[in-house]
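Hello, quick one for you while I still have it in my head. No rush at all, and the record is pasted right below.
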Amino acid sequence: MRKLKKIISKIIKPNSFLYRILKKTYHKLSDIKFIITSKLKQFYKKVSIKNIKETNKIIKEFNKVSKNKYVTFYNPTWLGVANSTKGLFKSNVAMEGLYSSYSIKKLAKVIAKSKVEVIVFSQICDGWPELIKEINKENKDKKIKVLWHANNFEVLSTYTWNLNKKVLDLYNKKYIDSFAFVKETMTKFYNASGIKSFKLINNVKSVEEKSLKTQEKEKIIGVYNSHSRELKNIYTQILSVSLMDGYTVDIVPSTEEINSYCEQMNIKYEAVNKFITTDELMKRIQKNEINIYPTFTECAPMFPLESFEHGVPCLIGNNNDYFLSSKELRKYVTVEREDDPIYIREKIKEVIKNKDKIMKLYREWKKEFDKEVEKEVDEFINN
């Protein structure tokens, strides 16, 4: 699907009618792909050279960490999930979807024969449910766990919902030992439903203040990682910045529609019409006075923590579990009315005015949060 999207973006003009139609149906195409692959009675039997190379690469990476008690698999093309996994676990292996019985059976045999006691799957993608079954078939003593990154909103996606059903079915059939969720309310709900679950909130590696380059702040407010998905609330965020005299809104990734909206509303903006790497984004934000991320629904978004770690405070919505142990910090940076641009503007002003105090509160909170997350990982792996 990613290759298809790249091809379409090169051939079809971004702001054309056809492009907008295809863009709106992209998730539907993902759903169709899932339905087709899930209905196949078996994976492709024909083994290609590409299958062999990719499988051998995964095995090579697995063998490097196979002396550890646990290993976590993650899909490197899902950037948010990948960053989350690296921030939580120390023993990780990148693995995309699996589409051949050869790959699944060979990987299962290697994993089953290893000394690794716990196998963690960070989210689930195509072929991984079949790999879980095959590992269990080869060695029933391996404990298999799943870290689920989505929240209840994601059931609107047929693709995610069908994978969710597959995973729950594997749990009910005893292939999966337990789940972890990056949101406490999800953990409580599934435990109340009789499903063994743990809380495991996302974290990022702490950046030492002295390692940050001193950069003079400009009158720029960042709106990032929102794109055009309705739940990300991007237009309200942009409007709130437009009410700040003399400020520019920096939007990454943006779209032609968002840019056109800014021009129509006479909003001063800078934009990149594509996703960029985390490293590129972190370099970009350091000139900003503040970033904002008051979305309508979240689990444990990585960006607010990444922003704080790079010396830029960030507003968040009232829909995640960050900063709960620091009431003062939580009050400063939490937007209670995500659909009110005037209210958000006042929150922006308050944070800018109290930036030094807020950054100090964050550093204090982060030290304790790191310890808390380490305990959560330990509990998840060892129980």
The mean pLDDT is 88.
